[in-house]
Amino acid sequence: MATATARKPTATKVRENPLQDFTWTGVDKRGQLMKGEIQSKSVNLVKAELRKQGITPRVVKPKAKPLFGKAGSTIKAQDIAVFSRQLATMMQSGVPMVQALDILASGQKNVRMSTLIGSIRDEVSGGSSLSEALGKHPVQFDELYQNLVRAGEGAGVLDTVLDTIATYKERIEGLKGKIKKALFYPAAVIAVAILVSCVLLIFVIPQFQSVFQGFGADLPAFTQMLVNLSEWMQSYWWLLLVVTLGTGFGLVALKKRSLAFAHFLDRMVLKIPVIGQIMHQSAIARFSRTLGITFRAGVPLVEALDTVAGATGNVVYEKAVKRIRDDVAVGYPVNLSMKQVGLFPHMVVQMTAIGEEAGALDTMLFKVAEFYEQEVNNAVDALTSLLEPLIMVFIGVVVGGMVVGMYLPIFKLAAAVG
C-alpha cells in the first residue's frame, strides 16, 4: 500500500517594489500636452494610471536625483507646523485622513518630508491610529505632539487639536528664532573681530617687526607685547585652534552626557545679565503655553506636566517642573508647587491660582504665555540696541589698539627726530 506524502507548501516572501517618483509627459483627450510627477512602483503602472485618467503617456521616467545628495535633507520644526496646519484644514473640509495624507505627501518639495508623510499614510491605511503612526517617528513628532494627537482622537476633535498644535509650534519657533537672533549677532561680530586680530598678528605685524629691527632702539612696552604675541601665534596658532574647537565640542558632549553639568551650565546662563533674564522669560513662556495647550486638549494634569518638563528648553526649569509634577500627583495645587520651586514670578503664581479656582487654568496660562512672549520680544530688541554700540567699541579697542601699537615706535622716532 503506497502512502502519499503531502509536502507542506513553503511560503515565499515577495518583496514589494518601493514607491519612487516618476516624471511624465502626455497628451489629454483635447490634444493638449500635459506633464507632472507621480509616485508608483514601476513605469508600466504609471502609464496604466495615466490612461485611466484619459491621458496618453509619451515619456515616463524616474525623477532625476539632485546633484548634491538628497533635496531637503532635513526636516525642520517649521515643516511639521505647516504639515499640522494643512492636515487640520483638510480634515475640517471633510477630506478623509488617508486621502489628506496622500495629497500632502505628493505635494512636498522636501523629499524626506514627503517620505515621512508617506510612511504615516501607509501606517494609517493599515489600521493604525494617527497617534500610533506618529509614534514611529519620535524625532519629528515628540511625546508632546503624540499625547496631544491621542487626546484629540479620544475626544473626537483631532482637526481642532492639529490646528492648535500648528499655532503652538509657530509661536514656539518664533520665540526660539528671536533668542537665536539676539545671541547670534554679537557672537558673529565678536568672532569676526577675533579672526581679524589673528590675521593681523600672524601676517601684518611680522612685516612691521622687520622695520622695527632697523630702529636700533627699545620698542614701547605695548608694541613689544604685540610682537611677542605675534611670534607666539605664528608658532602655535594650531594649538590655539585645537584647544578652542576641543573645548567647544567637549562642552557640548559633556552637557549631553552629564545631567549635573547641564544643570550647572543652564544655571550659569540664567545668571548672565540681560541674557539670563531673557532665558528666564522664555522658559516661563514655553512652560505656560505648553501646559495650557496640553491641559486644554484633555491630557491629565500630571501627565501634561511630565510632557511639559522637557519643553521648557532649560534643565533648571525641567527639574523644577518635574518637582511640580510630583507635588501635584500627591494632591498639591499647581500654584503652591510653583511657589515652592522659587523660579516663577509672583504674578505667574497668582494668575495660575486664579485659573485653578475659576476652572480656567488653560486660559490663564495662555495669558501668561502671551505676556512673557511679548516681554522676550521687547528684551531682545532692547538687547540688540544696547549691544550695537558696545560691539563697535569692542572692535575699536581690539583692532584699533593693535594698529596704534604698531605705529607707536614710528611716533616715538618722529618725536626724537623732531
Low-confidence stretches: 1-16, 67-72
Structural class: mainly alpha
Roughly how much helix do the residues carry, as a percent range?
Answer: over 70%
Shape: flat
Main sheet record: 3 strands, antiparallel
Query: What order do the SSEs take from the amino end to the carboxyl end, as H and E?
Result: EEHEHHHHHHHHHHHHHH
Rg estimate, integer Å: 31 Å
Give the strand order of the largest sheet, numbering strands 1, 2, ... along the chain.
Answer: 2-1-3
User: Roughly what is the average pLDDT, rounded to an integer?
Assistant: 81
Layout of secondary structure:
Elements: E1 20-27, E2 33-40, H1 43-52, E3 56-62, H2 77-92, H3 97-106, H4 111-125, H5 130-135, H6 143-155, H7 158-212, H8 221-257, H9 259-270, H10 275-296, H11 301-309, H12 315-329, H13 334-341, H14 346-358, H15 361-417
Antiparallel strand pairs: 1-2, 1-3
Task: Describe this protein's structure.
The chain is mainly alpha-helical and 418 residues long. The protein is built from 15 helices and three strands. Strands 2-1-3 form a three-stranded antiparallel sheet, covered by helices on one side. Strand 1 and strand 2 form a beta hairpin. The radius of gyration is 31 Å and the shape is flat.
